[in-house]
Amino acid sequence: MATSKADAERNLKEFLDKHGREGFLKLLLTNYLFDLAQYYLHTEKNPAVKVREDTGYRFYVGGRERVYKPGEIEQFKQDLRRECEKKALLIIENLKKMELLEKLDGDFMADPKVAKLVQEAFESITQKT
Fold first, then answer.
1. Cβ(98)–Cβ(121) below 8 Å
2. Sign of CA pseudo-dihedral 42, 47, 51, 53
3. Is the pTM of this model over 0.70?
4. Rg for the chain (alpha carbons), in Å?
5. How far is Cα 25 from Cα 12, in angstroms, rounded to an integer?
6. Which of 14, 26, 48, 59 is deepest in the core (most CB within 10 A)?
7. In 3-state terms, what secondary structure has residue 26?
8. Are 85 and 23 in contact (CB under 8 A)?
9. Per-residue pLDDT for the chain (129 aa), expressed as one digit of tens each?
């Protein structure tokens, strides 16, 4: 059954009331980084890091052609999500230091200076690791 617009709005309001703007941003960034990492790991080739194999295949099959157990894959995903959450928290910390977090209420990306600072905060975390 599809969620109605009213239910979605109520769920979002309840989430924001409970976790606040930072909690929402943490969840959004964590999920984004996790999906980005999953996409990267499942792509065909990764020449930038000199991987000469199909990493989508290697995600499920170990170096000795041993298929990973579903529990091992799930554990990896949980570990990856925890790492992504740590990175999300670092991004939020950088946004606070740059005094940008409070500006995220409105259409902050319409201001080119703010958009550039947000991009720099994000890149400062994602490019170091």
1. yes
2. positive
3. no
4. 18
5. 12
6. 26
7. helix
8. no
9. 677 778 878 887 888 889 988 898 899 999 999 998 888 777 755 555 555 556 566 667 776 777 888 898 899 899 999 999 999 999 999 888 887 777 666 665 567 776 777 677 666 666 554
